[in-house]
C-alpha cells in the first residue's frame, strides 16, 4: 500500500475528463428521494464534514445553524456508550449533525420530495454522492459500492484509482457532460481534501484521556471538545 503522501499526489493528478467519462458511463440524476440524507433503522445518517466546512455552515444564513453543535457531531465510530446513553471516548473527524429521527439536520421533505436547507454550502461528501474515488485514505460512504469504473492506465483488479458508485436510485440515468464535469471536479477536490485531512489528523494527533462521559475529537486542526473548541493541554 502506498503512503498517504503518495496517494495524495495520485489524487492531485486525477483527470477531470477521465472522472467525468467514468461518471457518464455509469450515469446519474438526483431524484431527490432523500435516501442519502436520512438514517436507516437504528443507524443514524453519517456524513463526514471537514472543520472548515462546519465554519462555512456556521457563517451561512442557514436557519438553526448558529453553533458548531447544531452542525456537527463527533464521528460515532470508536466511541462507547455510558449507562446514561451518552457517548464517551476518543474519535476522529466530524459527522453532520442529525435530528431525533437520525436524519441530517439540513434535510427537509415536502410532499415526498427531499431537499437540503444548506444546499449551496453543503459539504463535499454531499456534493459528490453517490460517487467516490478508491484511494487509500479516502472514504467509502453509505456502504459498499454497487458499480465501479477503472480509470485509464489502471488495472481493473486494482482497487486504487477506481470511480465507485454507491447505492442510489438515481444511478443509471443520463447525465449531461457539463453536469458530469462539475461532479468530477468536486469528486477530485474531495479526494484531495480527504487525504490532506487524513495526513493532518495523523500528524497532529496527540493521545488524550477523556473524563468519564467526555468525548475528544481529533481532526486536522488538533484535539477538540464536542463544541469544536480546542482541547486544553
From TrEMBL:
Residue ranges with Basic and acidic residues bias: 216-233
Region called Disordered, residue ranges: 205-233
Protein name listed in UniProt: Fe-S oxidoreductase
